[in-house]
Amino acid sequence: MTVQLTHFTAAFVFAIFASVVFGITHRETTRDMIRYSLYCFVMFLGGILVAGWAMWLVRK
Amino acid sequence: MANSTAAKTKVEPAQPASMMSIIAPAVGWLVPGAGHLVQRRWIRGLLLFVSIGTLFVLGLLMQGHIYKANGGDILDILGFVGDLGAGGLYIATLALNGGQGAIAFAIADYGTKFMIVAGLLNFIAVADAYHIAIGKKR
Fold first, then answer.
1. Of B63, B107, B113, B126, which to mutate for an interface test with A (greatest number of A Cβ within 10 Å)?
2. CB B21 within 8 A of CB B128
3. Cα–Cα distance, A16 to B47 (Å, whole number)
4. Using H for helix, E for strand and C for coil, what is the string for A4-55?
5. Which residues of chain A are within 8 Å of residue B124 when distances are taken between CB atoms?
6. CB-CB under 8 Å, A4 with B128
């Protein structure tokens, strides 16, 4: 059985799970964990999108 | 004068080594999140198990390649170290002969990286379990 994900879906999935782990392991209180997870998620996904467009610009 | 030196030097009391400081990291490496579960951090442990486990399993299902111990180039060695972090998942995958295909297409490359990252995230989780065990974190 092979799972086929689009590039964006793979990035989304990666960002979600990595952010959850970062939030849990890098903060103490529940509220801080959730806030940091959301921050990491935005950074991961945003960084991927920015890097993708930057590579498109370089190639262009 | 003698007092000022003593006042400046602040000695932290030594944390006694406990069984939990050995057990939690060990089980946490074997099963992602288990190091938190044995310390009754149920939600954290469950979230870590689901996150790291899903990343690893998805990586396998995407036909990712799993690295064995090797003396090859630095990237292969780093891939092995990353995969090793997944502990029991890595051992079970090797035992079942999984992840042995070549990285033939893009999604398999993503799968390979998913498994490496899952292992690295588990290393972080193990360190977190250890810090909870020694009282450095609640």
1. B107
2. no
3. 11
4. CCCHHHHHHHHHHHHHHHHHHHHCCCHHHHHHHHHHHHHHHHHHHHHHHHHH
5. 21-22, 25
6. no
User: Highest-confidence range of A36-40, B11-15, B107-111, by mean pLDDT?
Assistant: A36-40
Q: What is the pLDDT of residues B53-82, one digit of tens each?
A: 999 999 999 999 999 988 888 999 999 999
CA of B112 vs chain A CAs: smallest distance (Å): 12
Tell which residue, B114, B70, B66, has the closest CA to residue B92. B66
Q: Quickly list H helices, chain B.
A: 2-8, 20-30, 34-37, 42-61, 74-84, 88-95, 106-133
Alpha carbons A24 and A44: distance in angstroms, whole number = 16
Instruction: Flag if B127 and A25 touch (Cβ within 8 Å).
Output: yes
Give the tens place of pLDDT for each residue, A32-60.
999 999 999 999 999 999 999 999 999 98
Q: Residues of A with CB below 8 A from B51's CB?
A: 16-18, 20-21
**A28 lies within 8 A of chain B by CB:** yes
Cβ atoms of A1 and B100 closer than 8 Å = no
Q: Is the ipTM of this complex over 0.95?
A: no
The neighbour count for residue B138, using CB atoms within 10 Å, is 8
Digit-coded pLDDT (tens) for B91-103: 999 999 888 877 7
